[in-house]
Amino acid sequence: MIRWKRKLGKSQSMTGRFAKKWQKKMNTFIPEKVHSVVTVSVKHMVQATLTGSEYISKKELDLTTTFEEREQEVQELFRTYKNTAIAEGIGTGAGGILLGMADFPLLLSIKMKCLFDTAITYGYDCREFQERLFLLTIFQLAFSEGEERAKLLERVENWEDYAKQLPTNPEDPLTMDWKAFQLSYRDFIDLPKMLQLIPGFGAVVGAAANSHFLDLLKVTAMNSYRMRMLTQGEGPNL
């Protein structure tokens, strides 16, 4: 966890900055329809996470397992969801632009279902509104960069204090900027997803990109919960 935090705190390399600059330029060539699909998909995902039941895990809270057993189960969870995401990326990537655009909402659904299962495995009840907000914060952290990433990392590390400022009811106004969330996620994934729209070649890109995104989410989620448990002292029934 400490190594992960140190890695996130490192400034972006010259190569990374060049790649990001090139990506932003390439993003201007992506059809507006594609940008719209991502934006609408993220908006739906946020709403479904905060107030819906489609991501609610069927797993039951098991507070008798050890921390090591929970970590092993989370690893297995992500392995299963990653295989699903790879298969989905191959299938949608092979079909060109129409099927490629269908990948956005499907991949978001896979990611969020995996996060809900992860929360339950670690012993947190994601039926609670603030736990859902924590899941969205993990998601933001995984797919953010620069100053935004540093701010989100600090938020996760001090979650118990930060959560005191948050509403406990989904009907109450939120202090989080979900519009910025949509834009940062869209910018993060645009380039690989654009390549996925190329018929045939998109299948290879789709499989690789979805595998990478699930690995990134796994590392972020596991370390976020580790950090939260250490901050709490013992964690929930740890």
UniProtKB/TrEMBL annotation:
InterPro entries (UniProt xref): EcsC
Superkingdom of origin: Bacteria
Protein name: EcsC family protein
Organism: Alkalicoccobacillus plakortidis
